Amino acid sequence: MPARAAQPSYDVVVIGCGAAGMTAALRASKRGLSVLVVEKAPTFGGSAARSGAGIWIPNNQVILAAGVPDTPAKAAAYLAAVVNGDVPTAKQQAFLDNGPSMIDFVMANSPLRFRYMSGYSDYYPELPGGMPQGRSIEPDMFDGKLLGAELAHLNPAYLPTPAGLTVFSADYKWLNLALVNAKGAAVATECVARYTAAVAAGRTPLTMGQALAGALRAGLAAAGVPVWLNTPLTDLQLDAGGRVTGVVVTKDGVATGVTANRGVLVAAGGFEHNLAMRLAYQRQPIGVDWTVGARENTGDGIQAGLRAGAATDFLEDSWWGPAIPLPEEPYFCLAERTLPGSILVNSAGRRFVNEAAPYSDVVHVMYDKNVITPDIPAWLIFDQNYRNRYLFRDVAPTLPFPDSWYSSGAVFKEYTLSALAGRIGVSSSALSATVARFNGFAFTGKDTDFHRGDSAYDHYYTDPAVIPNSCLAPLWLPPYYACKIVPGDLGTKGGLRTDPRSRVLRADGSVIAGLYAAGNSSAAVMGHSYAGAGSTIGPAMTFGYIAANDLAEGA
Q: What is the reported pLDDT for 162?
């Protein structure tokens, strides 16, 4: 009988080819380790490739060069206030200490470059150390041609950039206003010119998550790191002492063992597309149809960690945001609920939240209040004046919404508030009274019920032409619209419990030797909160980087 071939062996095996996994793999390779990346999907990039790719990293070289007056003390005070005791201080500090060097590293070892998202406020700028002008950065334009044939394997964007435009995340604030604001019109023109110049120069211009994932993948290719796509994790391999020594994956339909001499990093995303896990761990109503996370994120890495004895944290939580369940896919609302002339109402036809609050907070309120006066679904109400002024998703001002939005029950339109109330099943008198009260706030500029506009963050996506409060405008011009709002998410944020070195822990605090986790496979350093734009990707990349450093040091 022929001898069985030895299973392939690497120093490090990374599960998941998203932002966390690619950053870790690149760092481990540059530290002299042999690395394999295995990815369940037929594409690379995961949820990061689908995203706007904001990255929240205090004190990084990009924001400091832009003149942002950040300091380590300010950042530590702010993050501590945001997390509010839910995450150990040492883990917060590990993120803050390593984030800037992670940014330096990826810029030095890949084509990835960044831009400061000037004016995109921290989400709680009034807290100690908070910054009204923000700390977030995003990828600069990346030439997709640098990927060669690998470009075909890049996970597509959640919302593709409109044809003929090269758009950065920071541009959307102004593109929403292109019809009514001179700067908005200028930004739209700049997006066209940027695309035209790139194509004329022979480039394939990518921005946002496409640039982030593409540039990191180019870095891996240059470093010679192999990436196995279509290769889901089956389980971890452990020795008799409980140390993780490798993985079993399914490659080309065959169970394949791979040895990891130093360790395994689980960076396989969350469990947003695993209905059983969502029903087991999260509040109702919940499902898998309202998330915009990558469809392959079914918690495989978290489940493997649980089988190895790992503890978990924050499984009940997600990177929430109000979403419209459109027939093609859910739409995660950012600007639409913040722009003046719109309100959110519950099943009683009454407002229940500051519509312009951080998106995660809005959904937390939806769940908290749903048991009192149901607000799942809630309804985003606006008028024709709002439609005449602002972009909605990718539908230009004044243009009609697709018929499918109406036929699916996601959107309703009527010429009176009373008729609209009847269509969505709320009290006509209550909705009319709510709109009348809100219109009064718009005229005075002060929302005494929910304080919309009191925070600098509330004004990021608003209309500077609207006074005295750019968050508030009356609803007065028929027809009126109602969009169904459900608790959507960018992905789950609970996962394997890790220490400041990204090592996975058991419930008793002991370390599972050889096992690391980062990204949405791990419990978020943000706890139940959200410091600013990019609080998912920034920590994901940083803790991947930390894990690689620890693995390189032979721990």
A: 85
Q: What tokens does 455 get?
A: 């925070």
> pLDDT per residue over 430-489, tens digit each?
999 999 999 999 999 999 999 999 999 999 999 999 999 999 999 999 999 999 999 999
DSSP assignment of 352-414 = -S-TTS-HHHHHHHHHHHHTTS--SSEEEEEEHHHHHHS-BTTBPTTSPPPHHHHHTTSEEEE
* Per-position b or e across 276-288, b if 16+ CB within 10 A of its CB: ebbeebbbeebbb
Give pTM, 2 decimals: 0.96
DSSP 107: H
Give me the mean pLDDT over the 107-127 stretch.
97
The predicted-structure confidence for 254-289, as pLDDT tens digits, reads as follows 999 999 999 999 999 999 999 999 999 999 999 999
Q: How many CB atoms lie within 10 A of CB 409?
A: 13
Judge whether 344 and 380 are in contact, CB under 8 Å: yes
Mean pLDDT of the chain: 96
Q: Tell me whether strands 9-15 and 254-266 are parallel, antiparallel or unpaired.
A: parallel
| Other C-beta atoms lying within 10 Å of the C-beta of residue 78 | 24
Are the CB atoms for 298 and 41 separated by under 8 Å?
A: no
Whose tokens are 């029950």? That residue is: 409
User: To which residue do tokens 């200490």 refer?
Assistant: 97
Contact 111, 97 (CB under 8 A): no
Answer whether the bond into residue 232 is a cis peptide, omega within 30°: no
Residues 467-472: contacts with CB within 8 Å, 24+ apart? 468/444, 469/340, 469/441, 469/442, 469/445, 470/340, 471/338, 471/340, 471/356, 471/447, 472/340, 472/438, 472/441, 472/442, 472/445, 472/447
330-332/205-206 β-pairing: unpaired
Residues with Cβ within 8 Å of residue 371, at least 6 apart in sequence: none
Q: How confident is the model at residue 3 (pLDDT cuts 50, 70, 90)?
A: very low
CB 257 within 8 A of CB 246: yes
Query: Rounded CA gap, 227 and 246, in Å?
Result: 16
In angstroms, the CA 478 to CA 385 distance is 8
For residue range 218-239, what is the model confidence (pLDDT) as tens digits?
999 999 999 999 999 999 999 9
Q: Give the C-alpha separation, 124 to 127, whole Å.
A: 6
Which helix or strand (DSSP H or E) is residue 449 part of? none
